[in-house]
Design goal:
By secondary structure, this protein is mainly alpha-helical. The chain has two domains: 39 residues, no CATH class; 81 residues. The protein contains four helices and no strands. It starts with 28 loop residues before the first helix and ends with a helix.
C-alpha cells in the first residue's frame, strides 16, 4: 500500500488513537486541555478555534471564474490578432505576417472556446501558443 507510514489509518483499516506520547513536547492531553483556557498560552497547533469560512472559496465559483477568465482573455486576444492581421494585410508587409496573425488569432479563439467549456489548462496553453505565433509572425516584418 502506498502512502505515508505514519498515517492515521493503518493498513488494516483501524483508526489510530492519539496517546499522550504522540504529543511533540510530551505533555498529557489533560495538560493541553487546561492550557486552552489560560490567557497568553499558545497551546498546541490546531487547538485554537479558527473560522475558515472566510478563507474557503466555493470550488464551483473558482471554476466559473477560471472559465470566464479563459474565455474573455481568449476572445480579446483573438480580436487583437484579427485587427493586427487586417492592418498588416493593408500595408506593405509580406503575406506571411498577416497570415501568422490570423493563425494566432484562430488558435486564441480555439483557446477561448475550450476555456468556456471548462478546459482551462488547455486553453491557457493555446493562448500562449497563439500569442507566440503572432509574435513570431511579427518578426518576419
Amino acid at each position: 500500500m502506498s502512502g505515508r507510514g505514519d498515517s492515521e489509518i493503518s493498513e488494516t483499516g483501524e483508526d489510530r488513537t492519539e496517546t499522550p506520547e504522540d504529543l511533540d513536547d510530551g505533555r498529557a492531553l489533560e495538560d493541553v486541555e487546561d492550557l486552552e483556557g489560560v490567557e497568553g498560552s499558545e497551546g498546541v497547533e490546531g487547538s485554537e478555534d479558527v473560522d475558515d469560512s472566510e478563507d474557503v472559496e466555493d470550488p464551483a465559483q473558482v471554476a466559473r471564474r477560471a472559465r470566464w477568465t479563459a474565455a474573455g482573455t481568449g476572445s480579446l486576444l483573438a480580436l487583437a490578432g484579427l485587427a493586427a492581421s487586417m492592418l498588416r494585410a493593408t500595408g506593405s508587409a509580406p503575406a506571411l505576417v498577416p497570415a501568422a496573425y490570423a493563425f494566432g488569432a484562430a488558435v486564441c479563439a480555439l483557446g477561448a472556446f475550450l476555456g468556456s467549456r471548462g478546459r482551462t489548462r488547455r486553453a491557457l496553453w493555446l493562448l500562449i501558443a497563439g500569442v507566440m505565433v503572432m509574435a513570431l509572425g511579427d518578426q518576419f516584418d
